[in-house]
Design brief:
five-stranded antiparallel beta sheet, three-stranded antiparallel beta sheet, 22 helices
Length: about 950
Amino acid sequence: MPSNPNMSTTNGIRSEESEELELPMHEMEETASEEILEHEDGSATIMMDEKVGPMNNTEFYANMANDMGESELDEIATDYMEFIEVDRESRKNRDKQYEDGLRRSGLGHDAPGGATFDGASKVVHPVIAEACVDFSASASKELLPPDGLVKSKIYGAVHDTIQERADRKSEFMNWQFNHQIAEYRDEMEQLLTQIPLGGSQYLKWRYDSEKQRPTCEWVPIDNIFLPYEASNFYEAARVTEQQDITEDELKQRIEQGLYRDVDGVTDTVVDLNDLETTQSKNANDKIEGISQPDKNIDGIRRIYEITTFLRLESDKETKGKRAPYILTIDEATEKVLSLRRNWEENDEKLAKLDWMVEYKFIPWRGAYGIGLPHLIGGLSAALTGALRALLDAAHINNSQTLLKLKGGRISGQSDRIEPTQVVEIEGAPGVDDVRKLAMPMPFNAPSNVLYNLLDWLTNAAKGVVTTAEEKIGDINANAPVGTTQALIEQGSKVASAIHARLHRSQEKTLQIVARINHWYLPDMNNNSGQEILVRDFANNDDVSPVSDPNIFSETQRLAQDQAVLQMASSFPQLYDLRKINERILKRMKVPNINEVLPDPQGIKESNPALENVSMSMGRNAAAFPDQDHIAHLKVHLAYAHDPMYGANPVIGPQLVGPLLEHIKQHLTLHYLQSMKQTVSNAAGGQDAFKLHEEKPLDRDAQEALALAAQLISTQSSQQLGNFQGAINELLQKQQQQAQAQQDAMQDPAAKVLLQTQMAETQRKTQEMQTRFQLDQQKQQLDYQQKLQEMQAKIADLQVKFKQEQDKLSNQIALANVNNAAQERIEYIKAGVALNQQQKEAEIAQNANAIEAQMENEHRIRSHQIEMALAQQEAAQQAEEADKDHMREAMSREHQAGLDEQAAQADHERQLAQIQATPTPTPTQSGE
């Protein structure tokens, strides 16, 4: 370590005589501000508590403007107000680029471009807004972890004292960023969302004496003015920050002594219209939905804080030599409010102190970085234009637009017809069809070519700042490690480079906060509950951000862990599989990992009684370096020889093996403990050789250990001699158990049984091997069959894809031809429309004539049908009359026949009667 006036060095190891120089306890407490740093070569460095900063020398860091002449200050203010105006003008186009980025995000609903007709689409493609949100989320997760963003990092040889100090600092600073500096995360998240738009953004740090802690503020790039010739922010000749503060903030800074109380400054009323706002500020106000008030009720005024270099003859520290200063000027009065030295006291080099950190997106030629408006501003405009054109085309095709013939009039106040409305139209003379008065406009439908172009532009815009995270998530678990790593590296080039720049900027932030701690720690409100010293922050190279500049996301880490797990599966003898799985589970934020992944060899430190119980149950026990090994041996051996416990035949056979292994551990650790204690006593109470660490020792150390070994050999016989007999008895018991098992093996019946068991085991093993080989062959055949099927499916898919691609190409070509012919077709349609209407009218007239003729023919045919029906009915009636006459004649003939038959019957009857009567004789008749 380099020499320092506040450090003293003592060579050699402390001897026994040096113990007489030890101070009493109260004197040691008074010198607690000293720190003794021991080195491997035997030297020791005493670090004194060195306090530097404005709290110890208020004169050096005081406001120099209070002691300077007003004329000199006015001259400085006049010069720098001119510098500010020139620097502001030189970066106006830069402000316009930032404004374009904010407007093209679409959040303010005023993105440029698009059609101007009523109802035209104002939608904005979200590629820029999406990129800003994704970038901020990814960067916040890496740069602002909830567990703390500071870790210890030591360069060179690691010493216990140095490591402890670094751990103290990192723990304290993590408390600061997570709890004390409450606004840090909010300011950083705002900064990260704006980095892709502005290209560069800035974070400013200072100590707030009222809050008694460090505080930070995000400064947008439009409030930073750099000289035209500046090529680097940190090396610029001047850096101007434009601040708009309230009247209350101005008075507060005057009361705290930051600004001098100049006559007229607090009384000056500023008109808000006189404060020129940047174009990007106006664009952002539209996004936030706010506007500048008409009345300046808060007394807002503008001041300029300039980090610059001056040559002041009046400064007794520099006497006209170029040196860095911080100058503050009020714009309204052009008065210097403060002028302070900006280098460490006693620094002969006059190195400028940085209080502002630059966060850059993409570096370019110059001091300002470039962002998304520079990279994809044109693509964003094209995307928005294509999207609006598609929506406008769809809107026009869904909205009726007509051409009306001159002379036709619509009754009412307007020609605009609303849905469900009934409107009367007066046609020109001779127009009897409403379709002759109006014709729909032939607008083109949304183009497929434009839609494909929109998709291509989207992929091109996202490809500029995209990462391989999505592709990493799709990687097969069995994919080769080289493929995974190559994909990670190829897809993370841009994002990894940006993340590395942000990591470096955050590292500079830690340096500034550590410097503030070094200056103001005694005045801070420390509620962390940690003991931290001012000297801890004298050198701050031992703290670093926890983010990894080579890794920008958890997806990338999981992909790497997956690759390690794949390699471990191929070579398990080279890896600790449990550690790998534990690492993956931690990365996945799985709680209670020990419950999910228990450690099979994890043995916790316990007391000797519980260890006896564990070993009796068949579980192992472990010895630890700092235990009282003699006491443990006494308890274990007493338990082992107790006839009711360890010597009991029920417990003894299970206890002997684990107990002897445990006793071996205690004996070896007792040896190491004795060697360490002996060497430490010889070195005056210091562990000079650190025997618990695996590192080679020089010749003197080896000789010292040899002497210590001889001394321990003498002491061990006295300390452990009483245990040797008990240990030998345990060994005899173990040997007897082994001999009994061997004798049992010599028994012929047992031997035959063992051989039978071995043969059965061998047979089962052979059977399992055969089954395994068959399964392997079957799996190989199945795999080959599935592979062939998959290849066939892939070939079919390729053929189908080629067919679909050809079909799509034909459709695109046909669409292009159709688009070219569409106008001609529509023109022809428009020309034919009137002829078609006339033809339709003639057809209608012909149809009416035909309809009348058909009606007449129908009437004639109906009359003929009625006449025919009447004639048919008369014929039917005549036929019925004839039939009735014939029936009457037949009835009369039949009745006559019946009468004749009846008369014949009567005649025959009478004749029969006559014949039956006797004939009289003539005498009788004569008498």
